[in-house]
Amino acid sequence: MSFKFHPPLYLICLILTVALGQVSLAQIGPNLGHTDRWMKAAKAAIERTDYKTANSIFRNMIDSGQPLPEEMPYFFAETLFQLEQYDNSSNFLNKYLELNGFTGEYYKAAQELQQRLESPLREILDCQLCDRRGYRFKTCFTCHGDRQLEQDCHYCKGKGVVGCSRCSGSGMITKVNIFKIVEYYECDRCHGKGRLTCPVCEGNLKEVSSCETCRGSGKLSSEVICNHEEESHDHEL
To answer: Are 129 and 202 in contact (CB under 8 A)?
Structure first.
């Protein structure tokens, strides 16, 4: 079974927050220039259901750093919905409502899109095969899904022994008697060796710990939109 490939847009959301902060000024101030033309081109692409082209245009608008039309987040949200990027769609839709509220020209359409998003967003939350953004999990390339790794002991650096803290590795401890004379004794903790078996790896030089790459989950998010259907190889996760 094949999947649709869509690069994640969560970083673009951060840029959008800054860019849309200029919307109110754009309405009464500078000419929107290229963004006006891009907006018209994006709407035309949506009308002919060419959502991939619309998606590309919206990305260019955000990357331009120019003031964005107030309706842009709504149309981008609709485009992302059609491309099955439901979490991203919800983010941009919320941004549109945040900026325009119930006075926005597309407020009713935005409410309808919110309702359409409810079911796919619920499927994402209920699915065990994808992350909260709806991107399918893949097996961790570091631990290969085992969740743990055998590696050199971090405590003894793979030596199997550590210095005795009681005698500072000398094997001897000192005491001052009542005559203020320093007396030397063999350390009763390490028996004069100055070293102890590593308490973490117990001298085995290795330790088993959670994989840092996947944080012990055995899986990573991919850039593939999840269809919420299990495949034969998914049991490996």
So the answer is: no
